[in-house]
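Subject: Interface between my chains keeps coming out wrong

I've been trying for a while to get a sensible model of this assembly. When I model each chain on its own everything looks fine, but I need the whole thing in one frame so I can look at the contacts. Pasting all components below, labels as-is. Any help appreciated, I'm running out of ideas.
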Amino acid sequence: MTYRLAVTSALVVMLLIIFPPFHIRRTAGHSSGVANDHAASADIAQSATRFWDASLASREQVHPTDWLVLIKALQEDPAQGGRPYGRRPAIGGPWFYLLSGEARVVSIDARGLWLDGGQGLGDWRVLLQTGPIFGSALRDATGLLRLEDFSSFDFNELGAQLNRLSETRVGAALRRDARVGSRIEFVAAARLDGVSGEGHTLLLAPIRVGLK
Amino acid sequence: MTEGEGVLRPIMVCMLVALLGGCGGETAGAPARPAPAPRIAIVVSTLNNPWFVVLANTARAEAQRRGYAATIFDSQNDPAKETAHFENIVASGYRAVLFDATDAKGSVLNATHASRAGVPVFTMDREIDSREAAVSQVISDNYAGAEEVGEYFVRQVGEHGRYVELLGLVGDNNTWNRSRGFHSVVDRYPGLRMVAQQSADFDRSRALDIMESVLQAHPDIQAVFCGNDAMALGAYQALLGAGRAQDVKVFGFDGSQDAIKAIAEAKMSATALQYPQVMAATAAEFADRYLRGDHELPRRVAVAVDLVTFRNALSLRQ
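Reply #2:
Try treating it as a single job with all components included. I did that and got this:
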């Protein structure tokens, strides 16, 4: 009797293994799963760090434009003036610039340092960001990273990770040490502020800075 | 048989032959009948949404302008219908497919099937999760658009508040790129707390129902971010019904004319304007170039998205 029960139980177990009554599946059926996201983020974070060290922060790899040259060109033609100095990866999208220069800090707020170049900026305002950095200027300004080499998820995450590197590696020290009146030299990725609607504002995401 | 009949009969036979055969026959010395235009298939996820109607019609117009006969296939948001369309397309000798997918993962098989059968696929708007299945993918820069909506959200709502997010179809990459772009901004402000996040499948009436339930559970919200304008307008309707339309800010995505009108009338706060015409025309251009031998096309290309607020809504109203 016991033998028969054991054999029956074994058969039932085997049948349940071969024909399981239910399957456990990810309900969203999508790569938004938390575990996947973390794995992808870790890879992309490493890619971002490599790109920052080998390309963005490299004096050989990037060739920035003098920021005052760009401002002058934009003053003359806000729509097209920046074209020779920038890159526009998306069809109809914003232009991104790689800039360098020297400036004086004229004010500081939660978003960053407002700069003056000693020449008339006209109605242009320039913010060297130290607070949360958004947008894809750091990813797109060099033209070295292309959407077609990534999935859109990874490409977007790459931009976000580069922003974090700018905040932690450059922005944090700048926020701590800069004062109104400080003179500063910088290399930064830039875009126009499309959100505020407060005239012409150039947003700089810092790559290298030096306080004088 | 009379003599007259004997003369007429061969003439009548010739006339009959000419009438029957001459209709389609290509005879020496006669002008050659033009070859039928090569055919392009346009497969769209749904035609039950004006946005996709614009996408499909623009793709068809651009393909026709480039000398193709173009046919639109409506998948009705049903992956099985999409599969049937692809089987039909492959069997019917279409030269290329302009493709708006129903599902980022599920649609890869259909695109692969067509590609392997020698029918190249060019996606527009909705991305599929494969680098090989499509020759080129023309997508909206959803993340950047949602990032800008997120930045504007923080400026409008402030750095403290409670909000709701209504997601689109969970199998669509656009849904997640919009959600992630938005959260890449608002999650940096710990005082902004999302109290509910639910999918309303890009559908206005589902959004209305969900928002009514959410308002009962969370009457103290200050804002709602929706993955498209149809859901935003559904959410607004729910807020109106609950008497909360004045104090809860509504943010959408797409740039539909209804949403732009609502923004101009201060019923909604912002949306992100997409350009389906640009995506469709670019996909058709890429297909044409590919069929003419240009195989150096970008694997993926983004089309920009613009923020629409009260400041520019009036100028965008048609």
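Reply #3:
Confirming on my end. The mean pLDDT of chain A is 84.
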